[in-house]
Write a structure and sequence with these properties.
Number of domains of chain B: 2
Largest sheet of chain B: none
CATH superfamily of the largest domain in chain B: MetI-like
Order of helices and strands of chain B: HHHHHHHHHHHHHHH
Structural class of chain B: mainly alpha
CATH architecture of the largest domain in chain B: Orthogonal Bundle
Radius of gyration of chain B: 25 Å
Shape of chain A: flat
Family (chain A): Belongs to the binding-protein-dependent transport system permease family. HisMQ subfamily.
Shape of chain B: globular
Main location (chain A): membrane
CATH architecture of one domain in chain A: Orthogonal Bundle
Distance between the termini of chain A: 55 Å
Number of strands of chain B: 0
Largest interface: A-B, 57 and 58 residues
Helix content of chain A: 55-70%
CATH class of the largest domain in chain B: Mainly Alpha
Pfam family, one (chain A): BPD_transp_1
CATH class of one domain in chain A: Mainly Alpha
Membrane topology (chain A): Multi-pass membrane protein
Protein name (chain A): Amino acid ABC transporter permease
Distance between the termini of chain B: 43 Å
Oligomer: heterodimer
Strand order of the largest sheet of chain A: 1-2-3-8
Strand content of chain B: under 5%
Number of helices of chain B: 15
Number of strands of chain A: 8
CATH topology of the largest domain in chain B: MetI-like fold
Chain lengths: ~325, ~350
């Protein structure tokens, strides 16, 4: 047998060759891309680097959790966007979990009518793109009546084309907060918390869409608990509610938590759809920044970095929780 | 008590909680169903006409669909050439239906799909056999949605198998590259990936080389779908017992023979539901190309509603588009359930 053919017959040698080829390929493609990018940037007269973050942004942002004016820097504008992304994701996760759990449990309830209704909801929502649903929600919110004819479904809650106004807490007095009820004054509301139409539409869309997926996860989790467990609990004299709370849910959580984590991540990753209806989240702000400065590479890298951090952080949190509910086998 | 009576008592009024739920559900139905039926059927305006006739009718404006369905379905594709994408879609649906019969699972089916791709692209592009050439920039509506979804899935699937095998590989470099790619892409929102594809691809390419907007979006969709599909495939690979690998080794099969003949046929069969779930997600996600300025079904629907006179009837327009998306997604999920049962027949 020839030397080379013998070498090729060795699995280790072949492995080394393949790996060397992959490394070479990655370096070659990467280098080619970097070289092209640098040439193109030079041609367009765009300086690389994150220096633009310190420059004045010069554009306004419609809603912000922290004080912001167009005179602030790009860095602060991006921070405003990031906070908006975090806010919508956090609220979306909370509401979707509540509704999704309720629907999932309801779908398994002995009540035929409720189970069917929840089934229709899940199938209808899961099979239609989220962006389409967002357009509908946004359309519905903006065609609501004006502030003076606002819908008033609950005391202190007003729905109008100015958005959703809910009671807020007033901390300005010091010490205990006072409930701050919104009132109509002139053509708009004063007091309370105002959620913009964009925010309200995005929150409704994300919540309703994700809740349908969470409902299926909860249902699968509950179904994974062997029937004997329920029968045993009932035989011990536990009520239906106690059985669900003390026996079924703790075991179902083990099956539920891992896919639930990926749904939570989906909420954050779906929140940039905000850009389609004009809610200033991180991706929307960074897009404006790209259009103004041309610093596409840096902005995209920044957004990617932030989303990777959010993903990793949320995964770590959910993994910690998963460890707590996981089965401890001795 | 007779049987229906017993059934109603057991399933609707079995306990106090149950009764409350039933009453709530009935109240909800009473509040929503009659007004909806009135809006959608009795007060609706049907057939052709103007937005004015809709406003007088007061109910749903199906006139919108009668007047503007061509724009919604085909986007900016030249009006007198609409029969071409229509024919391409009809061929696609026919072949899809044929593929769902086990009788048709023969080698010719693969050839038929190859032929379909050629015929459909010729129909869409034109430029041969006396067909007027149509640039991809003018493609739109449902054909564009289907083209992006089908091509993204067809290209991403083999790529995802390589990625999944790479992630399970014993070679550290190949494993690291695969893990890095999968986790990086899965950590990113599709919207920013599509933006990256539309903003940065022009920067990545040598000077003077440009690629079309539709192709850029397609590359973005493919890269994204591949990462998620790879994770689904990995789930199947992990479920294969070690003995299968060892037996293949003992028979003297090479790595690729082992994978092709022993491991993948078993692994892919196990993960049909998550894979089809990912196909469904990909199909729905094609709607995001709206954001980077392509005229897919959703964007074309939005464009049809741009006219201020028609804008008040956006619910009707979006409802129609939603129904189209729903039909495709629902078909896929039902097909996956059937396929799962069908391929399990041999193992029983």
């Amino acid at each position: 047998m020839g030397g080379l053919a013998g070498l090729w017959g060795s699995r280790r040698f072949r492995g080394l060759v393949y790996q060397a080829l992959v490394i070479g390929g990655v370096i070659a493609v990467g280098g080619w891309l970097v070289r092209n990018t640098l040439t193109n940037l030079e041609l367009r007269g765009i300086a690389t680097g994150f220096g633009f973050l310190g420059r004045e942004a010069g554009f306004d942002i419609s809603e912000s959790l922290i004080p912001y004016t167009p005179a602030d820097t790009y860095a602060r504008a991006l921070l405003v966007g990031l906070l908006n992304t975090l806010l919508i994701s956090a609220l979306g996760i909370v509401f979707a979990t509540l509704i999704g759990t309720a629907v999932g449990v309801m779908r398994l309830s002995g009540n035929w009518l409720m189970a069917r209704l929840c089934g229709v909801y899940v199938e209808a929502v899961r099979n239609v793109p989220l962006l389409l649903q967002l357009f509908v929600w946004y359309g519905l919110v903006t065609t609501l009546p004006g502030a003076r004819q606002a819908l008033n479904p609950l005391p202190g809650v007003f729905l109008s084309n100015r958005g959703l106004v809910i009671p807020g807490l007033d901390w300005s007095g010091g010490g205990w907060p006072v409930l701050d009820l919104p009132r109509l004054a002139g053509f708009n509301f004063t007091g309370g918390l105002t959620l913009s139409p964009e925010f309200a539409a995005l929150l409704a869309g994300l919540t309703v869409y994700t809740a349908a997926f969470i409902a299926e996860i909860v249902r699968a989790g509950i179904l994974s608990v062997p029937k004997g467990q329920v029968e045993a609990a009932r035989a011990l004299g536990l009520s239906k509610g106690q059985t669900l709370r003390l026996v079924v849910l703790p075991q179902a959580l083990r099956v539920i938590v891992p896919p639930l984590t990926s749904q939570y991540l989906n909420v954050t990753k779906n929140s940039p759809l905000a850009i389609a209806i004009g809610y200033p989240d991180l991706v929307a702000v960074s897009n404006t920044a790209i259009n103004q400065t041309g610093q596409a590479v840096e902005s995209v890298a920044l957004v990617m970095g932030v989303f990777l951090c959010i993903s990793l952080g949320l995964s770590a949190l959910m993994n910690w929780y998963n460890k707590r509910v996981a089965l401890v086998s001795k | 008590m007779n049987r229906p009576g017993r059934w109603i008592k057991a399933n609707l009024f079995g306990s106090p909680v149950n009764t409350v739920l039933t009453v709530l559900a009935l109240a909800l139905l009473w509040q929503t169903v009659p007004p909806f039926l009135d809006w959608a059927l009795f007060s609706a305006s049907w057939g052709g006409g103007s937005p004015e006739s809709c406003r007088q009718a007061g109910g749903a404006c199906w006139t919108l669909l009668a007047e503007r369905h061509r724009l919604m379905l085909f986007g900016l594709y030249p009006y007198d050439q609409h029969w071409r994408p229509l024919l391409a879609m009809a061929l696609f649906v026919a072949l899809l239906a044929a593929s769902s019969h086990r009788r048709c699972w023969r080698p010719w089916l693969a050839l038929a799909w190859g032929a379909l791709i050629v015929v459909a692209s010729l129909l869409m592009w034109g430029g041969v056999a006396g067909l007027v050439p149509v640039e991809t920039a003018q493609w739109g509506g449902l054909p564009l949605t289907l083209v992006i979804a089908v091509l993204a899935i067809v290209v991403a699937f083999p790529f995802s198998i390589l990625l999944a095998l790479g992630r399970r590989s014993e070679l550290p470099v190949i494993k690291a590259v695969s893990v890095g790619y999968i986790e990086l892409v899965r950590g990113l929102p599709l919207v920013s990936l599509l933006f990256m594809a539309s903003v940065m691809f022009p920067l990545f390419l040598p000077e003077g080389v440009t690629i079309e907007k539709a192709l850029r979006a397609l590359v973005g969709m493919t890269l994204f779908t591949a990462a998620y599909l790879a994770e689904a495939v990995r789930g199947g690979l992990q479920a294969i017992p070690k003995g299968q690998f060892e037996a293949a080794d003992a028979l003297g099969l090479s790595y690729w023979q082992t994978m092709r003949l022993i491991i993948l046929p078993q692994a892919l069969r196990l993960v049909i539901p998550p894979i089809v779930g990912q196909f469904i997600t990909c199909f729905k996600d094609t709607s995001l190309v709206t954001i980077v300025g392509l005229y897919d079904l959703l964007a074309a629907t939005k464009a049809a509603l741009n006219d201020p006179a028609w804008r008040p009837f956006f619910v009707e327009g979006y409802l129609a588009a939603a129904l189209v998306y729903f039909c495709f997604c629902f078909f896929m999920s039902r097909y996956s359930q059937w396929l799962e049962r069908e391929v399990a027949k041999g193992t029983r």
